[in-house]
């Protein structure tokens, strides 16, 4: 690597060591956040009371609709609470009045997650695996040069 210009060495180091390390750490943070939430939450049955529609205009001005359900559920003290799902999607247009298993942290019940929603785990694991793989290759090449 000593025969490469200094700017190219720095670029390789940044692209194949620093950025992958940041991506890997971000994935670890996502996984830790999901784990902490799951430790603090309870599974309850929520009733869909409203569907909020979000419009997104992508490339070519194509419109995509995303749906975010709002749930009512019972708190441990018997009161009825209402909260929005933490995520929305194109396939979340549930019928009003239908029930779903949701995860609720009763210390902060403003947002709920659908039980079975694994998007945080999948995204976090992908960041760890991809970032870690590129980091390992980058370190191998940097050290071997």
From TrEMBL:
Would the keyword Transmembrane turn up in this protein's UniProt record?
A: yes
Residues passing through the membrane, by range: 6-32, 120-143
In which domain of life is the source organism classified? Bacteria
Q: Which UniProt keywords apply?
A: Membrane, Transmembrane, Transmembrane helix
Q: What is this protein called?
A: DUF3592 domain-containing protein
**What is the organism of origin for this protein?**
Pararhodobacter oceanensis
């Amino acid at each position: 690597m000593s025969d490469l210009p200094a700017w190219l060495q720095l670029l390789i180091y940044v692209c194949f060591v620093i950025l992958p390390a940041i991506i890997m750490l971000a994935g670890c943070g996502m996984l830790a956040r999901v784990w902490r939430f799951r430790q603090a939450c309870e599974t309850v049955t929520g009733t869909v009371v409203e569907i909020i529609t979000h419009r997104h205009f992508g490339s070519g001005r194509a419109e995509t609709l995303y749906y975010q359900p709002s749930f009512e559920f019972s708190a441990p003290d018997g009161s009825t609470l209402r909260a929005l799902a933490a995520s929305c999607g194109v396939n979340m247009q549930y019928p009003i009045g239908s029930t779903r298993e949701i995860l609720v942290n009763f210390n902060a019940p403003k947002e709920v997650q659908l039980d079975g929603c694994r998007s945080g785990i999948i995204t976090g694991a992908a960041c760890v695996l991809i970032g870690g793989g590129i980091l390992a290759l980058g370190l191998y090449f940097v050290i071997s040069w």
